Amino acid sequence: MSGIQRFNPTILLSVMLVACGCSNEPLDDRSLSALQEESSVAGTPEQENRQPTFITTSLTADNQGEPQKHKPFFEKVDVLFPGLGDTLSQAPVPRWKRDQRAVGHIYYSTGEPKSAIIHLEGMTRQEVQALAKIPVEIDFTQTRYHESDGFGIHLPGLLVTARGTVIAVCQKRHHSMADSGHPIDVMISRSQDDGRTWQRQEVIFQEQGISAFLGPIFEDRTTGTVFVAFWKMPEGVVDDLGYFSEYAQQGGGFWLVKSTDEGQNWSDPFYVRPQPNDDGWVAWTNNCVHGIQLVSEPFAGRLVLPAFLYKEGEPGQVSGIRGGLLYSDDNGMSWRAGAVLPEGSDEVNLVETTDGGIYATYRKNTLRTGKRHFARSADGGASFHRHGQHEDVRCRNLHAGLARFSSTRDGKENILLFSNPPGGSPAKNMTVRLSRDEGVTWPISRVIEPNPCRYSDLAVTPDGTILCLYTNGKTGDREKISVARFNLEWLQNAEEGNESEN
Asked: How many CA atoms lie within 13 A of 228 on its CB side?
């Protein structure tokens, strides 16, 4: 497979073990999709027009049927799928299966010639004997175990346009679920009925030899233009974090594709290189979710995106790299690096507050506390003036969703929404939280997905339906991408602090 470094297959190891194997139970079929074939439509190869359409509805609602206004409802709809060629599936087909019960210890020889043995606990004598008869390989890349047949999906982003079209975006990862080291495309699906049904998924960016690191989806509502951002890494780069500094030293920057017809057609990609901020930080787009457009003066119309920022010599998991913001005041044509988050910051989400500020939350890769961190800006995203962590929001150190449900600006209550799996390994129990004080506290929460899950994003339709787009699966947390559809009444039915401990 292109982009994955292979190694001399057989390294003889002496293996000793004691215990039991692991099972691989089939996926629960409660969420299996109804496959509908569509007539072929003319288009480019990137649009994969032969791909079938999945329209799925798995109701786990308080009332099953068409939602009624003000009556609590919840449903889960599967949106984006992995597959092999034109055939979609409910989960990727991995080339490797993990034995979750085996624990290994490495012993090195004290004399010459140098050798090593691995002592494994958790397997039976018969399993040990079988393992000793097959080649054993050391995975120097730490990515080989992610290899799969066909393609997988990750990094969800969600947008409801001013006209009400719902657009879901994600990565299409070829031959592996690793973050890098293989081809990665950008893929979308659209809904025109508030997320009930979805059109077939289609690729909107693909380039030979490139891993596309997906950035935010966002809309300039003054022009009606929808953008999807990403940046490029050569597919041969296996150590993605090691490439960040090199990319920044090349000047950073990112690519955009745009649509002026609600995501039906997309432009060729064009490159933008943001101007560094006054402190010399270079910027490019952060991972997935969505950007925002400010509505309050004096920054009304400004587009603000989550960003990665770089400044040589600054400490971090990757030297010089932090999370932060970048912004545009000319409808997305030129950009400037903005506010910078503290050491250890990584993936970021954001929302405009009713006082005209910006509230951002983020994960940390270093200096972790197990809580969700936040920062606030009062100058349109140019800087942060307040930092802290939410003692009432546990963080599994994963990306999260953040969106506004309503505000007093529209004559309604101020309500923000936040989504993440709060803890556990593997991550599970995707939870949506509600704040009535602009993100100061998050007292109400409700689990929308008890199974394994990972990244998410949030949006709200014109009729007030809340959409949470998230990766999930029966045995893995990125088997498919689904959307949970529910209303405020359903969410508020949760008792305060109603969150799983896992």
From this structure: 31
Cα(326)–Cα(143) distance, integer angstroms? 31
64: helix, strand or coil: coil
Look over the chain and give the mean of its residue pLDDT values, rounded to a whole number.
Answer: 85
Closest CA to 257 of 197, 350, 169: 169
Sign for the pseudo-dihedral over CA of 42, 45, 51, 53? negative
Six-digit token string for 402: 């953040």
What is this structure's pTM?
A: 0.83
Residue 239 Rama label (left phi>0; alpha psi -120 to 50; beta): beta
As a whole number of angstroms, the distance between CA 323 and CA 340 comes to 6
pLDDT beyond 70 at 113: yes
Tokens of 494: 């949760």
Tokens for 400? 């999260």
Query: Per residue, what are the HEC states of 317-367?
Result: CCCCEEEEEEEECCCCCCCEEEEECCCCEEEEEEEECCCCCEEEEEEECCC
CATH T-level fold of 31-93+145-492: Neuraminidase (2.120.10)
Tokens of 115: 């050798």
* Per-residue buried b or exposed e for 108-125, using 16+ beta carbons within 10 Å of the residue's own CB: eeeeeeeeeebebebbee
Residue 453 has, within 13 A of its CA and on its CB side, a CA count of: 31
d(CA 451, CA 471): 10
Q: Which of 128, 290, 154 is nearest to 212 (CA)?
A: 154
φ, ψ at 246 (rounded to 5°): -60, -40
Average pLDDT over every residue of 315-341: 94
Q: What is the DSSP string of 146-170?
A: GEEEEEEEEEEEEEE-TT--EEEEE
Residue holding tokens 């939350």?
361
Cβ pair 190, 199 in contact under 8 A? yes
- Is the pLDDT at 168 greater than 90, yes or no? yes
Amino acid at 477: D
Q: Is 204 left (phi over 0), alpha (psi -120 to 50) or beta?
A: alpha
Helix (H) or strand (E) holding 117: strand 116-121
* DSSP code string of 467-480: EEEEEE-SSSTTSE
Strands 282-285 and 303-310: antiparallel
Lowest mean pLDDT among 33-42, 65-74, 478-487: 33-42
Given this model, what pLDDT does residue 423 score? 78
Tell me the pLDDT tens digit for each residue of 397-446: 899 999 999 999 889 999 999 999 997 778 999 999 999 999 999 999 99
